[in-house]
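Subject: for your reference before the review

Hello V.,

The reviewers asked for a structural picture of the protein, and I figured it would be easier to keep everything in one thread rather than splitting it across files. Below is the amino acid sequence we used in the manuscript, unchanged from the supplementary table.
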Amino acid sequence: MTTQYSPILKLALPVQGELSGTWGDVVNDNITSMVEQAIAGRAVIDTWTTNSHTLTTANGTTSESRCAMLELTDTGTALTGAGTVICPTASKIYIVKNDAGQNITVKTASGTGILVPDGRTTFLFCDGTNVVEALTHTTSLQLGTSTTVTAVLDEDNMASNSPTSLATQQSIKAYVDSQLGAFDTLAEVLANGNTSGANDIIVAAGQKITVDTIDETTAAAGVTIDSVLLKDDVVNATDIETGSISANDGTTAATIANSTGVVTVPSAVLTTADINGGTADGVVLGATTPAAATVTTLAANTSLTINSTVTVTSVLDEDNMSSNDPAGLATQQSIKAYVDGQVGGSLAAANNLSDVANAATSRTNLGVAIGSDVQAYDAQLADIAGLTPTNSHGIVGDGSNYISTSASTDAILMPSGTTAQRPTPTNGMLRYNSEDAAFEGYADGAWGAIAGGGGDTQTVTTTSTTQTALGSYAAATSLGIEITVIATDTVATERTITKLLVTHDGTTAVATQYGEVNTATAMASYDVDISGSNVRLLATAASANSTNFTAVASILA
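And here is what came back from the structure prediction:
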């Protein structure tokens, strides 16, 4: 009878009369070494297939499932998401350290398991059906050198007051809420522990109370601070001492000099002002809105400026305007005499603009020079001006002129570029994706394919009967693909045409094949997968003859 093996740890069970002369080797290699692996052995798991790994098992030789410790890694970055480790359905203890970069669930093939977060180590065991936690109860807990915790209490009144117990969230909330409810007014807070019975706020010398707003207790009564009444934006006091008066934004409006008490106002807008004696320097009447001033005599010693215009230094009465003074005003009489003298002279019809021989000079004088002041005549501008602004019609060029789209039999050339060259999107955008060889639009917050055009065509010729990639499509922009495949045996001159619908969830691609026609037998079988960031169409040719494949794809979504 040959050596048997234990059902759980797969240890050798030699039978009487066998292994003559090799008994020691079997004990050492197939029993003692395997027991050591089960107690202190460590297996590094670094191979993953579709985010999963099944622990190896073996009779009497090294295997992953026998090891006491499992260290999960992913040096080849094969994991694309959360993964699973499948262990045998046999009772066994495992210490699992997860350094794989993804959350991993340790389970049996058909049972439940325990999720081991990335970067964590967990103590588990298989009960023969499922994988469960090995430690769910302890009498005490200590983190580092901190206080040892012996219980978690749910007491709303914190009656135990234990220095070695944690409190539940509910009990902490209940206790805090009850304490705040007992002291939720300023009077209650001030009276708490106050043996005098008073609840005034007393601030020691050198300290202060800082607030944004002080409200009056009784409506319209105001607030009194050291005999100064603050009421309704009014300060009521016998004497106010200050060095400056400022606007609400901090801008200084006036300053008051010490000793003299002289008030300096940089700028003042006065509705009514009575200046009875003295001088007023730099006074502006009606800075933005015209205003009137009543004066007995207005004398300008040097000059007069009205509304920030030309400063006038004199009033002249010269019939011939001989001074030609840019700072002088002319009297009514002198203006009339000068104008009357010019009639028949420089204002005669022969000298005005209508009689200038050079049209370009006239336009320049009038400020309508072509090219700088006004647009020169342009036939294309005339085309656009001649079009009727009809709803839903656009403007296109026909090679010579601009015309309405309703009058054109040509086509509109859309903006074109790769996926990476897409602009910052706005709903309603249209463009041609040169990478996908398809029209696309941006709507409802996402780019999507628009039907039309010949589709994405990719060709491959092979003599191999192993799986060959026919086409590759960007997964991010190819959520739904319809592919027509034409397979031609160039030796036997036979042909197969078939259609496939393909979709994926970013990790797994699936396809359904339909509508196949053959001149003889099927030229190939087809499959799809996810490779990197692309969806791939795969074909396995039925013959070693040179077979030409043409895949024409339409991106549906």
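For the response letter, the relevant points are probably these. The first strand starts at residue 4 and ends at 5. The two ends are 65 Å apart (CA to CA).

Happy to draft the paragraph if you're swamped.

O.
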